[in-house]
Amino acid sequence: MKSLWSDSDARKYKGPLAKRVYTSRLLGANPELVLHGGGNTSVKVSEKDFFGDPVEVIYVKGSGWDLGTIEAAGFAPVRMKALLKMAGLATLSDAEMVKQQRAAMLDPGAPNPSIEAILHAVIPQKFVDHTHANVIVALTNHKDGRKVIDDLYGDRIAVIPYVMPGFDLAKAVAEALAKVDPFKLEGLILMNHGIFTMHDDARESYEIMINLVTEAEKALSRRLGKSFSFPKAKAKENLRGLSLIRKQVSALRGVPVITSFDQSEEAAGFASRKDVAKLATRGPLTPDHTIRTKRIPAIIGADSGKSLAKFADEYEAYFEKHSKGEMMLPPDPRWAVWQGQGVISFGATESEAGVLRDIVTHTWRTIQLTEAAFEGGWKALPAAKLFEIEYWELEQAKLKKSGHAPTHQGKVAIVTGSAAGIGFACAASLAHQGAKVIGIDLSPEIEEQMAKIGGIGIVANLTDETKVLEAVESVVRQFGGIDILVSNAGIFTAGAYLENLEQSNWDKSMAVNLTSHQKLLKHTIPYLKNGIDPAIVLVGSRNVNAPGAGAASYSCAKAGLTQLCRVAALELAPFGVRCNIIHPDAVFDTKLWTPENLQRSAERYGMTVEEYKTRNLLKTEITSRDVGNMVSAMASPLFGKTTGAQVPVDGGNDRVI
Question: Is the pTM of this model over 0.90?
């Protein structure tokens, strides 16, 4: 491991807190040291309080901040006197500790201090760095871990047997430091947990971390030998199986989940190990991860339903054995080893699934390193210890305070023709309600447009069945399934009376406004059947029920689309998939309607533009957003009992009514 320290960069950071920011970011830049909010750092300084009185303060990483991107505002200033006084107490609950740390802050607007604030305070050196370095965990998570650490570092470090983070760990560290000269130590090793380094100089503390971890890497490498390599395999893709697993895990969790499926050769190699069921379920990389990953993953065999039911039953038994009145979490796995296929991470959001994938990847890689290097292999903490972390009182408090998620959170939605107009409005409304939206459009603008709403844009011609299939499979591969389909893509062909209608006009309208929707349904239905509260919404037209002369190619295609919706509703109802169609009219805030077009149309009817835009029974303007919100509602549980319906979004049309 190399030091990332740069003298020229460091000079840009003036003062102790700024230097603390700099070296914290250096630690956070290396995922072998910290992942997604893991680790914590601090610096002790002398300052003046609001009244100008001198006070000793420790700036410690604030809750919710990531070391890789932390700024000065991410450190909580806490009075040292209060923290040291707390360290002298015989007992202190974590909830009370959090409250008192908050009360001791110099700046009430700063984030909550790390749960390890007292621990940082009892270490006398000015700068303190803490990481969960993978290799340190690898050296400690086996039966001879303590001996390996002692042999490697000797009296340069103090070893702390595992103690749950918080007040008890701070007490254990204080007691250990009282027995030695802490200024002669380079660091602390917390068994099964991580490493601390400390020094009065920011660079020294950081580089001691790098040096100690490097020594550990070399020691592990010597044990592994030059011949070691991770097993590799190639798995045959099974996207329908993936979508079914996602559905089953969502049912256990009680909310839709998004998957991040690692089917790389190394992940498939791990999943193909004969001993993977025993190896993967020995425990997490570090106890802190249990809050995100749970204690162990699910092992999914040929019958995913039976495998996941087994996981749920065993999780409930684990809870009953160790519970002391806590509120049980849903019995779903947060990650799974799909035997012979790869490793799947599950999150309520795309972000959560991505974070889990990073943690899980480091987990299964490190487990294999330890298994290969040490007799007896990987050995995590006992289940009772891990239960304490998973059901930490602070995490239980968060559960009780958690609010309602957005309507479509965790759902995966495809919206076609969404580069502009009604299609984009539908995508935006679904995204606003929490869905992960994938837009498909012929226009290259789709990528930029979807990025605006946190979605993904795919450029594809929906009349090309091969491209349709590729787009659908890419969505399932990336997110695990499809729950919502908004089939909106369409064109308005030039008006012509039947006797003058060019055949190409008719053919193009049928290809885009009808057949492309049929192709899309053909390839999405197998995944929608495995969707969560799955719904299809087709976008029709007022012309279905109130056609106009000279619009045969458009009106007939939309009428055919309506009939397609009715047939789909009949076919898919037994699988719980709803299919409805909306018929918007007079939506003028689209690219089709320029101010000049509006003016000409209004004059043709002897109206002002405003009168023309509201020429419906309710005398109201219909916007793309109105249509988008209706589509989002129809895809939601609000329309959970409705299928095969035709819903107008037109302000009331006397010809239709």
Answer: yes
